[in-house]
């Protein structure tokens, strides 16, 4: 009887182990086939069906690794930089560019990707796009898996990373299979696909409706800072600048040209950052680089919401215009962007303070900020080829 009981226990143990192995294989197989994050499809960097909800950081790293010979130069930046067309970047210097924008990028990310690009692709030039939101938060990885730096960049275990994605909760795969939303894959040369935003734009040209749907919620969070002021970000500024210095050293050591610029901001976002920490941050960047283009300056175009697809991101037209300005082309928008040096940074900071004071007075009187309409001259996206083709 005792032997029978022992045999029965062994059978149950074997059955339990088999069920566990089957469950693990089922989970791993399902996650591998459905690939909810695009992790496995990103290998070799040739999956161009991935969109901004996928693990693009992995795809971009793999693309750079296997297609380095296709490019001479690389744009590195946060999600705002996704609105710059790689083809247009060639107007700067004739180089072939890849747009390596990163969702919610930060200075540590920029350093790690710059290091990877220099060591892997041996580029002639790095173009670093600063979004300004980097001054608000340093570490973004806590936001989710698609914000993490992949092992191919960080040098951590690829085996551990693979197991992590094989054994993700199956609810993510289920949501992927049942998701009926239209996908907007990024282009082969890296830039963000803005079709869904242009599609909305095409049907909505009332300034209040457009602003209320795409801008208001984000802007309302920034507006109180006009009266309360912005928080001190000295520690964050110092961390940012340490990484910028390291990027500069990397480029100098490897004979890579480095060009830095700050992307354009909608007036509703710009009010969220103006303050001593930002001014210190800006002055240090100018000192480290020796000079840079700043397009988040106060200018006429920043007051028109139709130049932006939400309060934090600009359309292709604004990206094109930044390249034209940096290329020295006549654009008819001479107040858009300013080239900052150690000689004019103090004057620019003083001007910014005066413009912020004007916005503060307007906000106190009206409870909002001024913005322009669709038909006004400062809307450069009106009748553009991008929204007509979107």
Structural summary, described in words:
- By secondary structure, the protein is an alpha/beta fold.
- Helix content is 49%, strand content 8%.
- It is built from 17 helices and eight strands.
- It has a six-stranded mixed sheet with strand order 2-1-3-4-5-8. Strands 6-7 form a two-stranded antiparallel ribbon.
- The mean pLDDT is 92.
* Rg calc: 24 Å
Strands of the biggest beta sheet: in what spatial order? Answer: 2-1-3-4-5-8
Sheet with the most strands, sense and barrel status:
6 strands, mixed
Q: What is the helix content?
A: 40-55%
Number of helices: 17
Query: Globular, elongated, flat, extended or rod-shaped: what is the shape?
Result: globular
What is the element string, with H for helices and E for strands?
HHEHEHEHHHHHHHHEHHEEEHEHH
Measured distance between first and last alpha carbons: 77 Å
Oligomer: single chain
Structural class: alpha/beta
Amount of beta strand: 5-15%
Short summary:
With 390 residues, the protein is an alpha/beta fold. It has 17 helices and 8 strands.
Topology:
Blueprint: H1 2-34, H2 56-66, E1 73-77, H3 86-89, E2 97-101, H4 107-121, E3 125-130, H5 151-154, H6 158-166, H7 170-178, H8 195-203, H9 207-214, H10 216-222, H11 225-228, H12 234-253, E4 257-262, H13 267-270, H14 276-289, E5 292-294, E6 308-310, E7 313-314, H15 316-327, E8 338-340, H16 345-366, H17 385-389
Parallel strand pairs: 1-2, 1-3, 3-4, 4-5
Antiparallel strand pairs: 5-8, 6-7
Helix pairs in contact: 1-7, 4-12, 12-14
């Amino acid at each position: 009887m005792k032997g029978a009981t022992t045999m029965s226990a062994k059978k149950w143990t074997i059955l339990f182990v088999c069920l566990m192995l089957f469950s693990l294989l089922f989970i791993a197989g399902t996650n591998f086939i459905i690939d909810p994050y695009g992790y496995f499809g990103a290998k070799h960097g040739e999956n161009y069906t991935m969109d901004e909800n996928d693990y693009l950081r992995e795809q971009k790293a793999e693309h750079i690794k296997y297609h380095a010979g296709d490019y001479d130069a690389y744009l590195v930046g946060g999600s705002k930089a996704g609105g710059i067309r790689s083809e247009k970047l060639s107007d700067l210097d004739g180089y072939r560019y890849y747009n390596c924008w990163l969702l919610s990028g930060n200075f540590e990310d920029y350093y790690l990707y710059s290091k990877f690009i220099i060591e892997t692709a041996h580029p002639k030039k790095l173009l670093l796009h600063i979004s300004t939101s980097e001054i608000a938060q340093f570490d973004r990885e806590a936001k989710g898996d698609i914000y993490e730096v992949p092992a191919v960049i960080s040098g951590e275990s690829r085996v551990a990373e693979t197991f992590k994605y094989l054994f993700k909760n199956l609810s993510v795969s289920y949501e992927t299979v049942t998701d009926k939303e239209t996908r907007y894959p990024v282009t082969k040369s890296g830039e963000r696909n803005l079709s869904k935003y242009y599609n909305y734009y095409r049907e909505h040209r009332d300034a209040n409706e457009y602003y209320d749907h795409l801008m208001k919620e984000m802007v309302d969070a920034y507006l109180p800072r006009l009266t309360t002021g912005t928080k001190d970000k000295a520690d964050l500024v110092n961390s940012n600048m340490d990484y910028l210095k390291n990027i500069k050293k990397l480029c100098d050591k490897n004979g890579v040209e480095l060009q830095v610029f700050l992307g354009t901001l909608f007036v509703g976002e710009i009010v969220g950052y103006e303050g001593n920490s930002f001014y210190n941050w800006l002055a240090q960047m100018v000192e480290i680089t020796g000079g840079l283009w700043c397009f988040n300056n106060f200018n006429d175009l920043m007051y028109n919401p139709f130049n932006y697809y939400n309060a934090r991101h600009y359309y292709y037209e604004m990206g094109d215009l930044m390249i034209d300005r940096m290329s020295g082309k006549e654009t008819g928008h001479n107040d858009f962007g300013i080239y900052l040096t150690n000689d004019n940074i103090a004057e620019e900071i003083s001007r910014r303070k005066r413009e912020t004071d004007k916005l503060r007075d307007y906000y106190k009187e009206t409870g909002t900020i001024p913005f322009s309409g669709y038909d006004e001259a400062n809307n450069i996206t009106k009748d553009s080829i991008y929204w007509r083709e979107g």
